[in-house]
Amino acid sequence: MSLIIGHRGARGLAPENTLASLQIALDYGVHEIEIDVRVTKDGVCVLSHDPYLHDASGGKMRAIRITNYTFAQLRQHRPDLLTLEDAITAVQRKVPLVIEIKPRVPSAHVIAILSNFLKKGWQPGDFLVASFSQHTLQLVHRALPQLELVVNERISGLRATWRAKRLGATRIALNHHNIWWGFVSTMNRRGYRLTTFSLNDPKKSARWVRRGLYGTITDFPDRFKHHKK
Predict the structure, then answer these.
(1) DSSP H or E segment with residue 3
(2) Which of 5, 168, 212, 215 is the most exposed place for a label (fewest CB within 10 A)?
(3) pLDDT of residue 225
(4) What does the alpha-carbon distance between residue 195 and residue 152 come to, in Å, rounded to a whole number?
(5) Which helix (H) or strand (E) holds 72?
(6) Do residues 220 and 197 lie in contact, with contact meaning Cβ atoms separated by under 8 Å?
(7) In which element (H, E) is residue 62 found?
(8) How far apart are CA 79 and CA 83, in angstroms?
């Protein structure tokens, strides 16, 4: 079975990294949900892909950088800004969360939150931690070796496998513009579980699944046949 992974929830169907986006992804029966985490000035982990806020319509509020403001201040500009704790509680173990820690984001805050949820009964399989930063993944692996890591790369499959070997990881996520069917087949034969982002074409996904693609990270889970609606 190949996985369908909701990108930032279901960012093509609702504002990304919001409660609404998470719920829509669940409604369409995704197998996992990918979210992005940044940390505020006062150490609160919030869901955001970019280092600055977006408004409710998706417009970029570049002047409001997340690291420069407290969570309370940010909520004044974006009342639906979601914390990592709120996201984990909302998903409630229905599917695993792929938590991407953005580069230069202090991972200790995320580690503390995940450790707390594990103590409260959440299982290691409820979380995967992804990053484009090798240093971040190393820190997470040292602190929480029971969690699966995802090596994120935009371009180089060679660099991705180099990084994965050093982490003891087999899960890799690459931009769909930089893979092809022969590469997918090779990665599958070598024992890597390759996912691709952000792919919104079910036909292309199906062709690569036949070659061994492990998962498709998509903005539009409603386009894929597995959905519940």
Answers:
(1) strand 3-7
(2) 168
(3) 72
(4) 9
(5) helix 71-77
(6) no
(7) strand 60-65
(8) 11
- Predicted confidence at residue 49, as pLDDT, reads 95
List helix spans (H) across 82-224: 84-91, 107-119, 134-143, 157-167, 181-189, 202-210
Stated length of the chain: 229
**What pLDDT, in 10s, does the model give residues 104-136?**
999 999 999 999 999 999 999 999 999 999 999
Task: Give the tokens for residue 10.
Answer: 């279901």
Domain 3-150+199-223 sits in CATH 3.20.20.190: yes
Q: Residue 119 corresponds to which amino acid? A: K
CA distances to 57, 109, 164 from 83, in Å? 19, 12, 29
Q: Which residue reads 């829509």 in tokens?
A: 24
Q: For residue range 176-190, what is the model confidence (pLDDT) as tens digits? A: 999 999 999 999 999
- What backbone phi and psi angles, to 5 degrees, belong to 201? -110, 100
Residues 184, 214: Cα–Cα separation, whole Å: 9
Helix (H) or strand (E) holding 153, with range, is strand 148-153
Would you state the structure tokens that stand for residue 4, as one six-digit string? 């369908």
Token pair 């009342």 in the structure block, residue? 79
Model-level pTM greater than 0.85? yes
